[in-house]
Predict the structure of Outer membrane protein beta-barrel domain-containing protein.
Amino acid sequence: MKKVILFLTLTFCSTFLFAQQDTSNKIQLGARGGVNFATITGDDFESPESRTSFYAGLVAEGFVTDRFSLQSEVFYSGQGFDIEETLITPKAEYQIGYIQVPVLAKIYLVEGLNIHAGPQFGFKVNEEIDFDPNSDGGDFDMDQIKDFDFQLAAGAEYKFSNGLFIQARYTYGFSEVIKDTDVHNSVLSAGLGFMF
């Protein structure tokens, strides 16, 4: 756990160090949150229904030029998938929680509008099957999913002059979610944020 905390701290602070090489560069701090539509995909697993959950966390953006910036984030991401009801199993949610740390390159196409992409590092913090997602009961802890997931994130964002921004992003996991299987995380997200 100490290694994870050290990694998160170094990654989040790297934006500041890079941007401060030129004192004319601007650094912005903010928060973001929204909704995830998450599932898993791959040759060794029939793609299940997506699970709707949320994400929330912190943002640090350092401008290298007026049209190019680097952004690091630290946020919680609720992922997983829905398990459909069958003759053998009841309907349930396979819930996987990650602390996600993306490092994104952002290109501003016009004022306010940017596209962004970069690597994302996911650290699993919880995993369970919930047979009753609408109440406090029905949770069973699991340990089938690997603790680390390397992903690629890409998306688009529009930032208003008052600091409010809206964004959409897709993230695909290149790591095997389950050892020795072709199963990967796939997440489409949309949300809001604010730069202070």
